[in-house]
Amino acid sequence: MFRFEHADFLWALTFIPVIAAVFVWMMVWKKRALQRFGDWAIIKRLLPGLSNGRVIFKFILLMIGYLFLIIGISNPQIGSKLIEGERKGIDIMIALDVSNSMLAEDIKPNRLEMSKQAISKLIDNLGTDRIGIIIFAGNAYVQLPITTDYAAAKMFLSTISTRVVPTQGTAIGQAIELAVKSFDDETHSRAIIIITDGENHEDDALGAAKDASEKGIKVYTIGMGLPEGAPIPEFNQYQRMVGYKKDNQGSTIVTKLDESMLQQIASAGKGVYVRANNMQAGVKTVYDEIGKLEKTEFESRMFSDYEDRFQYFIALSLFFFLIELLIFERKSKWLSRINFFGK
Asked: If 0-12 CB within 10 Å is exposed, 13-18 middle and 19+ buried, where does residue 191 land?
């Protein structure tokens, strides 16, 4: 099993293309500045020590060193000891609405991001429970099968967006039915958490919740949004906001939380309903309710020990930084006869 102990540091790798773009711009600017003094071929003869190849090579070494440094700081780890054992817990399937209405910003930063942040915190607080994730809009899909691998759960959670489901809509009933089918053992205590704005237009969500409760599965709902609602942002292909979604008459569409529907679903599923707000998303409240269910035993395979591998990447980083320091931007006299880097 491979993982990063501090995966958040990997975001620093996104600076590499930005730094590269700035470097290219500076090289072009430098060349143009020198060309103002005359013909470029003549200028190169007047500056025999000038070597753009060395500058580029030093920059590449720096970027490679930076890459290994960030990976090292993130601390790659390898699971070294796989154990099997009995654990007590509850099976939880989270069904997350990813329809476009979840981009509304009546809850900051928006309904979907608030939901993902809340689920991430829930995963951090799980003890011995198993968790799975379903995403739904016009259709429902299993994003993560039921598991005790919380690192994988957070990784899959980070990839969720409104673009992962091609068909728009809010098929809550289908999500509940898929969640019921996703539980792999009927002897465990099971619960479904539906996180949505409640605007169900696709199917019989109440019937699906009732069927789930008859199988001993409780259905909880979290209303993501505010009753007064908010417009739905629209984005272009570069994910830049270009306005708000409008109806056929040109009026801005306002998506509102349908609390009545979610309360009915929770009632049919013998669970509870909680409304989210800008302070908390309600996941903890629902999880506390789920915690009252009887925990059942199940077999679990997991890595108990992880070996750090950061030292190798830090060493590689220092090696490339050292090589970069030993290479000068200008040609040295004793190497002038050897052309490693070109003119």
From this structure: buried
